[in-house]
Amino acid sequence: MGGNASSKDEMSQIFKTFDTDGSGMIDRVEIMAYMKTNYPKFPLQAVDLLIMLTDTNGNGQIERVEFPDFYKIVQACVATDMVLKNIIYTALSVAENCEFITKAKIIKGLKCFGVIVKPGELYKNKYSKDEFMNEVEKMFE
Predict the structure, then answer these.
(1) Transmembrane ranges (predicted)?
(2) Which of the four pLDDT bands, split at 50, 70 and 90, describes residue 17?
(3) How far apart (Å, rounded) are the C-alpha atoms in residues 87 and 42?
(4) Distance (Å, rounded) from C-alpha 12 to C-alpha 3?
(5) Which long-range contacts link 28-35 to residues 24+ away (Cβ below 8 Å)?
(6) Are 103 and 124 within 8 A, CB to CB?
(7) pLDDT digit string (tens) for 74-130?
(8) What CATH number does domain 8-139 carry, 3.20.20.370, 1.10.10.10, 1.25.40.340, 1.10.238.10?
(9) Three-state SS for 57?
């Protein structure tokens, strides 16, 4: 289901396609199944990042109230070339709702992939897309 979901009814329908068990919450397994079916090139290791960015109450699941932000990030990510570092940047920047990403958000986001940022690796408080890509490229080498 592509495009922008603006109406509550449409968003509710999209939520139901994720929520296959009808629990009213979307867990990691449901998200991974949806992404694998609808976006087979999407790197599934990015699912934890999507959850981390939008799970505001920390229960590890996406609830209806969190879903619009979650889906906005999903749509932005699937519009990329599906390269992991581009998805990471897109998810973080959409979550921050700006062109620059804070150092704290980068560190938290990269932790989802087992990348631990060592002291001194990120020296600035905010990064542009090009700066971010250069720094992340080094960390994934």
Answers:
(1) none
(2) very high
(3) 9
(4) 15
(5) 28/60, 28/61, 31/62, 35/74
(6) yes
(7) 999 999 888 887 888 888 888 777 556 677 777 777 777 777 777 777 777 777 777
(8) 1.10.238.10
(9) coil
Q: What is the model's pLDDT at position 103?
A: 73
- pLDDT (tens digit, 9 = 90+) per residue, 40-60? 999 988 999 899 888 888 899
What is residue 26's predicted lDDT score, i.e. its pLDDT?
98
125 Cβ contact partners less than 8 Å away, ≥ 6 residues apart = 102, 103
pTM reported for the whole predicted model:
0.76
Strand, coil or helix: what is 62?
A: strand
The answer to whether 132 and 106 are in contact (CB under 8 A) is yes
Which is it for the CA torsion 118, 51, 39, 131, positive or negative? negative
Residue ranges of domains in the chain: 8-139
Q: Which residues contact 12 (CB under 8 A, 6 or more apart)?
A: 64
- Helix 47-54 / helix 67-78 crossing angle, nearest 10 deg: 140
Euclidean distance between CA atoms 14 and 120, whole angstroms: 42
